[in-house]
């Protein structure tokens, strides 16, 4: 650019700045003049005092200019040209506020709607000086982020004529340091703030009372600053153990993802850690011990900081000495039983890096993992045991995302079709109304496999149980292995008690995934999952050493960068400004009632009723998403009302009547407190917050109808989502996009179940619903017929062509009650996963109950930190439509009287709106409940044995020749494994037992059946599929069945049933 052009541009900017400054000054003068005239007009009208609400409507700063007793004096000072004495007038106002305590402050900013809420912790503290209050609030607002400092300067200049104690620059307001010490670090710059200043800021008395040693976790990760730029931040973050707020220790800013000079990058940190470990940390005249607990980094950062091989190295595993195989341009780690690495072994490998290389040294395995000497060794000796395998990067964004990508965009027989992708997307979108507010990212209809880590975690632990149910059976069972293992390791309750089972499930998942997807699936992240159970057993649940809190801070750091000019100095100044603004106090948490509702006339409790309550970072509400929770005794309830009382809020809810297992592979879901429950009871329960143990997650099953074929008033038909239907004044209405919408946009909105927007949607009255469907494709197929018939009865529905009926299999190890999909015994084209014995499941259950019982004896009281925290325990439930209004007779908890009440109209509306609905809920059974269930089970077993003996005695007198009692000591049928089959053979070796078994099996067939069907029925009763597939009649390429004792018992049963007819044994041999 020409020098003259530069001067011209500079002069133009200067002129614009002068004009802006003059404009602000003129605006302030106009406001002052207008305020003066307003006061004169009010005085002429006889208004002696102006209320604060009127003052706030007149102009900027009016509430600060008008005193309650000095209006005339202020006006005289303005008329004389002496200006306004703001400080004197505000002092007068403060004195009046102190003398009249019944009046609320004009500047407290509180909402009158919440003044009467009980036990609220959001009431502002009394302000002694309004100007100081404004200054403090402005500084806190400026430090929250999301606002540029130029905007803060502009606001201060606008407020300064009225609030003369406010500075004109944000630097004075926030006490911004003038200089920031930044050092060169290879390919960038480094700003190191330190651990000690952050500890002084974040330590609280409550934390020091619970801990004897100050322990922190360290995280190092990179974050890009701008689009289409190679500038990155690599911050060193820390977090106090058992705290949720991380802090900044230092930041590197440069080109490239990693610092080129690692020694300079780590030098200040290593020096401070050594100082704190040797001398301790001085806080409030006391020396506290200091230590670092975990280093939580992703694999790339761990390899860089530790100076070890990356994921493309042959010896890249950080926990064992497995050697990888280069396969299809990937490093695959196929051996899962190698020797584990230790801290001592790592130090030995690092020390060998200083020795001269030799041929023998090159051939050893030691040189192939450690490739250098890390400066971190000077302060940390545990370079293996202190570095955690981060669940966010390794499990959710690593293994599960890879599993999902293979299905979504893979090229094998396992890849999903277009219709399957659409069903998965629609199913996820349908979960959005049921997703609790505890999840920051709600489910939505996905378009690709690119998902965030929090979304992947939610799908793996919650949504996937229903989303992937319609996949190929063996692929779904492979997902269940991963889900169950990670579910156990994430649980604070089961990560130790069921740790061995989680290890077995992970190994089974890895081996089965190799058979499904090939060797290219077993990369570094998949192999490293083998070491997760031991990590959780030694260091706690999986989420305690995840990177989610640090990722949130990285996002805040990035949002504070407002320009490309010196981004490192910007973050450093913002962080140093927070030192004088923090408070090392923790306010006691009290329940906060929100959203007052119209009192239910059927509610017998006296008090204001509410729709929502906040307590310990958890929201409970009468809405479907936040209404379900588990009680201390294991009961699952849905909240219907919240009533305030003198002793605290009272929760009104109804519980589910029935609970059963949702799945039985790889273990019974009841062991993990995953249940299928159905039918809410009519009675209501009155509870307190102390009675609630966990919040629950309800999810719809496939029986819910998401789409409806409706007829509008112009006799046109359309398939729309059920969320577009509503009811007003007893009439059914439908929302539909306005006429300016293009056809493809309307189709896309219907497929995605888009939210109905009153601005872009028309409301259609008196619509008629022809039929409900759970699939948009089926609804559109029936739509063509509805346009001609205007009727879609069940017999008129478009039905797919009938298929040839397949013969049912012998038996399945999956005995779940999901009759919709799981009971379709179709043969899978993919290899099956390993089976787990039911006897082992019962052994796990008994061991689990025993461990919980011993634990309850050691610590009978429940930890208060678990109350109100949303767990990942899940329950599934069904809601059924009831045509009549609900009513209940409920005993009030804590009293002996019964209070009769009926449910509110909203409860009935919810049930009728969703129709037959299935829901997934998350819950936890208490230890006392488990023991109670065990005692009830033993009592029921004793009673059943007694009834069996009584029935046997009665039947002998009625039918002496017929024996209906189960033979004594007969093994459980059907037989599942070869061991059970051998035990049954030993049992049938006795002729008496064989005769009794034949008579027992004969009761399952009759003479009207063909011999093939009789044989098939008995075999299905006796053998499971996996065991029956190992036998044929004469033993060709398999085991021979004709020579077994069970075959003799089968012949005896057929002969007993066909005593009066001739039996053709060749027909028996030809049975399947």
Automatic annotation (TrEMBL):
<keyword id="KW-0675">Receptor</keyword>
<feature type="region of interest" description="Disordered">
    <location>
        <begin position="849"/>
        <end position="869"/>
    </location>
</feature>
<feature type="region of interest" description="Disordered">
    <location>
        <begin position="787"/>
        <end position="836"/>
    </location>
</feature>
<feature type="region of interest" description="Disordered">
    <location>
        <begin position="32"/>
        <end position="130"/>
    </location>
</feature>
<protein>
    <submittedName>
        <fullName>Transient receptor potential cation channel subfamily M member 1</fullName>
    </submittedName>
</protein>
<feature type="compositionally biased region" description="Acidic residues">
    <location>
        <begin position="108"/>
        <end position="124"/>
    </location>
</feature>
């Amino acid at each position: 650019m020409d020098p003259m052009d530069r001067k011209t541009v500079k002069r133009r900017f200067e002129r614009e700045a002068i004009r802006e400054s003059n404009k602000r000054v003129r605006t302030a003068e106009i406001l002052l003049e207008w305020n003066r005239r307003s006061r004169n007009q009010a005085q002429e009208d006889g208004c002696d005092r102006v209320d604060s609400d009127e003052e706030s409507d007149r102009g900027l700063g009016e509430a600060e200019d008008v005193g309650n007793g000095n209006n005339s004096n202020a006006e005289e000072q303005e008329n004389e040209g002496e200006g306004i004495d703001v400080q004197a007038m505000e002092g007068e106002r403060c004195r009046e506020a102190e003398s009249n305590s019944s009046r609320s402050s004009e500047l407290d900013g509180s909402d009158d709607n919440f003044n009467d809420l009980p036990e609220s912790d959001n009431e502002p503290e009394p302000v002694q000086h309004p100007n100081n209050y404004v200054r403090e609030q402005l500084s806190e607002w400026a430090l929250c982020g999301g606002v540029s400092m130029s905007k803060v300067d502009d606001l201060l200049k606008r407020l300064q004529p009225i609030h003369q104690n406010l500075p004109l620059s944000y630097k004075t307001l926030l006490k911004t340091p003038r200089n920031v010490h930044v050092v060169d670090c290879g390919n960038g710059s480094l700003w190191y703030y330190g651990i000690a200043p952050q500890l002084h800021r974040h330590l609280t008395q409550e934390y020091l009372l619970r801990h004897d040693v100050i322990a922190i976790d360290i995280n190092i990760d990179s974050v890009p600053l701008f689009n289409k730029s190679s500038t990155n931040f690599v911050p060193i973050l820390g977090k106090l153990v058992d705290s949720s707020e991380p802090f900044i220790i230092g930041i590197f800013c440069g080109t490239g993802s990693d610092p080129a000079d690692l020694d300079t990058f780590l030098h200040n940190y290593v020096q401070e850690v050594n100082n704190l470990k040797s001398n301790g940390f001085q806080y409030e005249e006391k020396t506290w011990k200091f230590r670092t607990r975990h280093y939580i980094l992703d694999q790339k950062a761990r390899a860089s900081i530790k100076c070890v091989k990356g994921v493309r190295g042959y010896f890249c595993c950080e926990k064992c000495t497995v050697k990888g195989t280069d396969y299809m341009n990937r490093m695959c780690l196929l051996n899962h039983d190698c020797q584990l690495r230790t801290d001592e072994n790592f130090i030995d490998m690092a020390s060998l890096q200083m020795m001269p290389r030799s041929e023998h040294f090159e051939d050893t395995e030691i040189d192939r993992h450690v490739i250098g000497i890390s400066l971190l060794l000077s302060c940390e000796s545990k370079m293996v045991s202190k570095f955690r395998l981060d669940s966010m990067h390794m499990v959710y964004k690593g293994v599960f995302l890879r599993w999902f990508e293979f299905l979504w965009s893979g090229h094998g027989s396992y890849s999903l079709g277009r219709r399957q992708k659409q069903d998965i997307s629609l199913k996820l979108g349908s979960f959005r109304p049921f997703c609790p507010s505890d999840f920051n990212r709600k489910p939505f209809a996905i378009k690709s496999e690119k998902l965030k880590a929090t979304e992947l975690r939610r799908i793996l632990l919650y949504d996937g149980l229903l989303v992937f149910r319609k996949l190929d059976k063996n692929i779904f069972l492979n997902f269940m292995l991963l889900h169950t293992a990670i579910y156990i390791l994430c649980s604070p309750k089961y990560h130790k008690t069921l740790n061995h089972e989680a290890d077995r499930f992970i190994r089974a998942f890895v081996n089965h995934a190799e058979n499904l997807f090939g060797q290219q699936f077993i990369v570094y992240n998949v192999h490293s999952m083998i070491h997760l159970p031991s990590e959780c057993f030694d260091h706690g649940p999986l989420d305690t050493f995840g990177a989610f809190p640090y990722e949130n801070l990285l996002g805040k750091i990035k949002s504070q960068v407002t320009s490309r000019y010196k981004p490192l100095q910007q973050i450093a100044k913002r962080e140093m400004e927070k030192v004088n603004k923090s408070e090392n106090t923790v306010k006691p948490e009290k329940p906060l009632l929100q959203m007052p509702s119209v009192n239910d006339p059927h509610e017998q409790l006296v008090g204001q009723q509410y729709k929502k309550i906040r307590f310990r970072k958890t929201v409970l509400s009468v809405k479907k998403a936040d209404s379900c929770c588990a009680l201390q005794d294991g009961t699952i309830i849905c909240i219907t009302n919240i009533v305030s009382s003198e002793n605290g809020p009272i929760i009104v809810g109804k519980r589910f009547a029935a609970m059963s297992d949702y799945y039985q592979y790889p273990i019974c879901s009841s062991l993990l407190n995953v249940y299928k429950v159905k039918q809410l009871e009519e009675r209501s329960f009155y509870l307190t917050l102390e009675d609630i143990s966990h919040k629950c997650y309800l999810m719809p099953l496939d029986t819910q109808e998401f789409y409806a074929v409706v007829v509008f008033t112009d006799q046109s038909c359309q398939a729309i989502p059920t969320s577009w239907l509503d009811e007003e004044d007893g009439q059914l209405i439908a929302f539909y996009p306005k006429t300016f919408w293009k056809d493809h946009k309307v189709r896309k909105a219907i497929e995605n179940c888009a939210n109905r927007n009153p601005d872009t949607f028309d409301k259609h009255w008196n619509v008629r619903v022809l039929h409900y469907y759970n699939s948009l494709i089926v609804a559109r197929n029936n739509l063509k017929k509805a346009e001609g018939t205007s009727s879609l009865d069940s017999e008129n529905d478009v039905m797919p062509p009938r298929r040839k009926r397949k013969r049912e299999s012998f038996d399945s190890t999956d005995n779940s009650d999901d009759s919709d999909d799981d009971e379709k015994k179709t043969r899978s084209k993919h290899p099956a996963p390993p089976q787990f014995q039911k006897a082992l499941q019962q052994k796990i259950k008994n061991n689990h109950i025993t461990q919980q019982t011993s634990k309850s004896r050691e610590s009978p009281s429940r930890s208060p930190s678990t109350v109100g925290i949303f767990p990942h325990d899940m329950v599934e439930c069904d809601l059924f439509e009831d045509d009549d209004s609900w009513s209940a007779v409920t005993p009030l908890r804590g009293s002996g009287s019964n209070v009769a009440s009926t449910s509110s109209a909203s409860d009935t509306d919810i049930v009728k709106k969703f129709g037959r609905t299935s829901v997934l809920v998350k819950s936890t059974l208490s230890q006392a409940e488990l023991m109670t269930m065990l005692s009830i089970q033993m009592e029921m077993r004793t009673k059943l044995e007694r009834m069996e003996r009584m029935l046997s005695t009665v039947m002998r007198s009625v039918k002496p020749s017929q024996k209906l009692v189960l033979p004594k000591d007969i093994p459980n049928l059907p037989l599942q494994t070869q061991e059970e089959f051998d035990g049954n053979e030993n049992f049938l070796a006795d002729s008496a037992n064989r005769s009794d078994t034949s008579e027992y099996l004969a009761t399952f067939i009759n003479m009207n059946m063909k011999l093939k069907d009789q044989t098939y029925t008995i075999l299905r009763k006796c053998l499971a599929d996996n065991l029956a597939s190992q036998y044929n009649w004469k033993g060709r390429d398999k085991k021979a069945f004709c020579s077994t004792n069970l075959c003799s018992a089968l012949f005896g049963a057929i002969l007993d049933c066909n005593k009066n007819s001739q039996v053709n044994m060749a027909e028996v041999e030809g049975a399947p």
